[in-house]
Amino acid sequence: MSDHQCPDCAVQMEPTTVTAEGVGDLYVETERDGGILDRLGVGHHTALAAFLCPECGMTRLYADLPE
Question: Which domain of life is it from (predicted)?
Answer without folding.
Answer: Archaea
